[in-house]
Amino acid sequence: MSKNYTQLNLVQRYQIEALLKTGLRQNLIAKQIGVHPSTVGRELRRNIALRGRTAGDYVASNAQRKTDIRHQQKPKQVLFTAEMKRHAIKQLIVDKWSPELISVKGRESGQCPISHEWLYHWIWESKHGNKRVDRAYKKLYKYLKHGKRRRKRGNSKDRRGVIQNRVPIEKRPKIVSKRKRLGDIEVDLMMGKNHKGALLVMTDRASLHTRIKKLNGKTSDEVTAAIIKKLTNSSYDLHTLTFDNDKAFTDHQEIGKELDVDTYFTRPYTSQDKGTVENRNLLSSKAGFSAVLEKYQIATPKYITYHEGINLETIKKEFNFPILLKVDYSFSGIGLKMVEKPEDLSTSIEEIHDNLNLVLQEFIQGEDIGVEALFHEGKLIMYNCATINGYMYNRFSFTTGRTYYRDERIEKLLTELGEKIGLNGFASIQYVYCNDKDIFYLIEVDVRTNSWLPYGRFTGYNFSDGIRSIFDPTGNHKLLTKPKPKNTKVNVYIFDRDIRRCVKNRDYNGLLKWVTNHDGRWKYIPLYDWKLFRRIVSKIIYDFKQKII
């Protein structure tokens, strides 16, 4: 004999709440509203809060909300049978039908009367899940027409709201694309791990002048305030700001009004519309940089990104030690640690504060080669390469002396690098040459200017000439070369760095070379700027007192 069950409705719950306040017993409340006493007892056990503002009290509205949630989350009858799955798989793989077409035809024939949304859900749950019944279907997503992008329910209409009064990038002045003027800024957000914190990055398209601001989150109010504060006192006039379609840039009109600039938005899912800042972000990331090099088959040390649960024993077996631990988005050797032995790996990782944002990379034994280069839209315009003569502290710190020379192999590598990853502007590049394997390993590409760029005039390759060729409307933007002997080498030193290195390391022979103008070193002393010279001398005297006296 079947039983008919009726559930409490909202009206009955309000009655229970009111009768409880009068002090009536549960059996009398049940009789009053016409249900069994166990129904009232079960209702109170399920829906009386144990903590919070209403702890110990029965609230009808809260009880109804909890009941609705339980109904939504309870297991439902399985309607997608094995026979339906076989039918859907055949049409997806053999007939090359989309889930939408499978759903329409399935309803017509009655063989697979399932909505296309459920089919998408099943395919992606099989890919990402690990249920035994779904393991056979893990590769089904590859047969979708857009297998690399997950279809979101209701994506035909974005219900999160839209950015009002956006101006598409197609209406941006054409002069912006030519990179002929300062003040055309691209803006982007880089999110931290687990969406905790963010970096606001703003890059000028012509000069690659970049401003970076660390944020606690990506709310539109915080992002707007940071952009206005960073750009208000710009040393050059601002003309345009280009954003992507992130909701963090909702207040773009306020930004445009405060800074007196025009704002534009890229096309959806088109990162190349904002390629300058996107490329800069990617090269700033150790993991992103290594992934790019791997994609274009550019020689780089073996690496792996660290995450919780990673098997350190596997790393110890597969990697050749020593290895380097690098904190992602770190600069100037900060956040870098060398691990000499496998048994020290776990301890070294624990010592790094930001170890959930870490890249592990093999350390290549070889000759360090520093390169300063100028690119224009992927084309190599000028370069200087050098072996390293001295470091301020260690191999990962500032260099103090270099020997510049020309190398056709480096020139070829730079040309390919610029074309493959679309470099534009200045780049400070580091290679390590492994003599045993005859391979140049690319270690770093820093798309910022460095202290060695002005010293190009001593090598015969002045970067000022390269800049003039880029902005020359009649120029063909080809590699600038000079008929100089290939075996010519030029020793160059940065005065303050090398003197301080000599003092710190008690290198009296190095100091003597400066005193006696060995290799013509006096030409590197900045006598043209008396204030700068005095400041440098003050630092040297301070170091001398600390180390010698």
Q: Can you tag this structure with a few keywords?
A:
549 residues; 18% strand; 19 helices; 5-stranded mixed β-sheet; Nucleotidyltransferase, domain 5; single chain; alpha+beta; 6 domains; 6-stranded antiparallel β-sheet
Please, could you describe this protein's structure?
With 549 residues, the chain is an alpha+beta fold. It folds into 6 domains: 10-73; 83-143, no CATH class; 169-281, Nucleotidyltransferase, domain 5 (2-Layer Sandwich), CATH 3.30.420; 285-362, Dna Ligase, domain 1 (2-Layer Sandwich), CATH 3.30.1490; 366-481, ATP-grasp fold, B domain (D-amino Acid Aminotransferase, Chain A, domain 1, 2-Layer Sandwich), CATH 3.30.470; 494-549, no CATH class. It is 36% helix and 18% strand. It has helices spanning 10-21, 26-33, 37-47, 60-73, 82-93, 99-109, 116-128, 175-178, 220-232, 252-259, 275-284, 286-295, 312-318, 345-351, 408-421, 463-471, 495-504, 508-515, 530-547, and strands at 184-191, 198-204, 210-215, 240-243, 262-265, 303-305, 323-327, 336-339, 358-362, 367-376, 379-391, 399-405, 425-434, 439-446, 490-493. The strands form 3 sheets. The protein has a 6-stranded antiparallel β-sheet, sandwiched between helices. Helix 1 (10-21) packs antiparallel against helix 2 (26-33), helix 1 (10-21) packs across helix 4 and helix 6 (99-109) packs across helix 7. The longest helix is centred in the C-terminal third of the chain and has 18 residues, at 530-547.
